[in-house]
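Let us work through a complete example step by step.
Step 1: write down the sequence.
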Amino acid sequence: MNDWILDYTMFLAQALTVLAVLGVIIVLITKGRGQGETPAQLRIEELNLRQRKRVRRLKLAATEPSGRKRLLKIFRRDDKQAQKHGGDKSGRSSVWVIDFHGDLKASGTAHLAEEISALLDVVTEGDEVVVRLESAGGLVHAYGLAAAQLDRLREAGISTRICVDKVAASGGYMMACCADRLQVAPFAVLGSIGVVAQVPNVHRLLKRHDVDVEVLTAGRYKRTLTVLGENTEEGRDKFLADIEHTHDLFKRHISERRPSMDIEQLATGEIWYGQDAIEKGLADEVMTSDAYLLKRMQSARVLTVRLEAQKGLPERLGLSLSAGIERGMTRMLEAVDASRWLKR
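Step 2: predict the structure and record it as tokens.
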């Protein structure tokens, strides 16, 4: 009898402990959600300083131990001379560097907009904004907004250079052509100026199993193609007409920003690499972003600007499973779409 009471007491204590822990977690999650999103933090790094530190470390490593003390004295002397003459900041223009890595939904557009808004208030005459862009494209409206954010720099009269080291295709190229100067790496992928839409339809499968689907709409073209219902020729024609109209808008967008391009010859959905893209007029020069920024460090301060989102408590506790699944599916779709050029 005493053993049973002891076992029951131990079980009850363990159950209460588990319930208490779960209660604390729920309270913390609720509190975290109640506080709303934590504002993103602006991070700025001067690449000149980072490069100088790395070069000095390499020089020290390559110097015999007996000569390192003398080399350190030279470094300190150079630093004093720089401070005496106002440091590296005196009379030098600035190159502001922002990054955009696009997914199917151009999810980074909100941060891009905030970064550009911040730069518009600080960029002065002689400065330049460099955008390191990587995107295989995605949703039309999402990339239309992202391109419109880059247009704000051009409209403000700010010198803008876009660097493509890997890919700027479809919606990515819609963004890339907003630059005053577009440079690409030797095997960067550009182009894919086209529109694609895929709609699965399981109507015949449902019909085979005696399942009816009623699609009711108010408005002739409220639903042109459906997944479950029976599609009509009129609906297909309208859907195709909408795609063609979107393609025309895409071509007009590019023609206005790169008038030297033969848009009718190039808006076929094809892609081009590096030098071929230069010859077709899709870009201006072949150079990697690293090479360009290293070159600019000789005469200007080069600063990276990025917004870093602060992770909320639910995400830190690993409660973002659905978001992870969505990201995985998105990456799979992007990989399938980009399979034309992601080959060795």
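Step 3: interpret the result. The chain is about 50% helix and 15% strand.
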